[in-house]
Amino acid sequence: MSDCFLPRLGGIEVQVDELARAQLSVGHDVSIATATPCRTGVPPAEGALTAGDPYAPGRPVAERPPVDRLVTPMPWDLPVGRSIRPVLAERKPDVVHVHAGAVSPFAWRAVRQARQAAVPVVLTVHSLWGPVSRGVYRALFAGWAQTADGLVVTAVSEAAAAPIRRVVAGRLPVRVVANGIDTSRWHDFACAPMRLRTAPDADDPLHVVAVGRLAPRKEPMNLLRLLREVGAVVPIRATIVGDGPARARMERYLRRHRMTGWVRLTGRLDRSAIRVVLAHADVFVAPAARESFGLAALEARLAGLPVVAQAGSGVADFVESGREGLLGRTFPELTAALLRLTGDHRLRHRITAHNRATEPVRCTWPAVLEDFDRCYEAASAKTPLAHL
């Protein structure tokens, strides 16, 4: 169950799709329910289940699970959604796995309705809760904790788990299960020659890449400030992949500070095109402090790139400062980290070699599927919660 799903694009949408397909591949019987329409502005008929939806628009893909789109027509296709009770009655699930962000009305209603139907629930929180979210959910979890049997809560990183643990205050266990990634897609990168240079210069400057939605939560303006400060010291060029509401403001900033000649905004690219961008990059930057996981940073790490990111974000679960990249807690520390990588080519090459030679095991699908299987068993009361 997820408010948002394909064809809408985002971290949760992609992760739910790939999790479902990975589970299908090992023999689970999986279906998806979502409040996202298959095409913008075209919800399914009221009361209808849409099993067999091939993730329209697009052609059917055999290994994809059926999708029930419980859409309520709303302005801007807001994913409010309808009751999941028809899905529970038809599918008769052994367990409901709910995926929630900071504000997920469909997901939270799904938790309540599944528990009312005595169906075990695993709730995965994909966002990093701030003070407002913590206040809203404190009362909700206090009520759930009175009947905690059949409910297991997970978060995608230690950073995301910390505020949830403060909210539940020991009344419920909170387990960290990482987002998963298919590392086989990156094996070609591990075999390709590394892009090694002794130092950036005017003819071949260091190539810095960032990938993500251009929205305030991702701090795109801080990214531009970071590039501007580093670019004033050493020659660099930058590629920023993604789209979103902050793009127009970013374009104005680039023009105002005369950065358009060396900073390129590509807009949204598919994942194969992103791999091409990463293959020609030297460093990946993820400046957002409120990054709950950082799937784009994980992909960059698998491509071999040193990652510069916030020490308190979810990226820190798979990037240790000095091993897979450099982490900082403040804007000056992030600036210093990127500057260090531009000048210390031995460090950059050592991190690249390490990233290509090692896998983030906790993020591989076999590990993620095993972790979730344990959660499903616990929610179904087959395993004591204490064993998590």
Task: Write a brief caption for the model.
It is built from 13 helices and twelve strands. With 388 residues, the protein is α/β, with parallel strands linked by helices.
Walk me through what this model shows.
It comes from Actinomadura fulvescens. Keywords: Glycosyltransferase, Transferase. Pfam families: Glyco_transf_4, Glycos_transf_1. It is a single chain. The protein is an alpha/beta fold and about 400 residues long. The chain folds into two domains: about 10-180 and about 365-385, 3-Layer(aba) Sandwich (Rossmann fold); about 185-360, Rossmann fold (3-Layer(aba) Sandwich). About 35% of the residues lie in helices and about 15% in strands. The protein is built from 13 helices and twelve strands. It has helices at about 10-25, 85-90, 105-115, 130-145, 160-170, 185-190, 220-230, 245-255, 270-280, 295-300, 330-345, 345-355, 365-380, and strands at about 30-35, 65-70, 95-100, 120-125, 150-155, 175, 205-210, 235-240, 265, 285, 305-310, 325-330. A six-stranded parallel beta sheet has the order 9-8-7-10-11-12, sandwiched between helices. α4 (about 130-145) links the parallel β4 and β5 (about 150-155). α4 (about 130-145) packs across α5 (about 160-170) and α7 packs across α11. The longest helix is centred in the N-terminal third of the chain and has 15 residues, at about 10-25. The radius of gyration is 22 Å and the shape is globular. The two termini are about 25 Å apart. Residues about 40-50 and about 385-388 have low confidence and may be disordered.
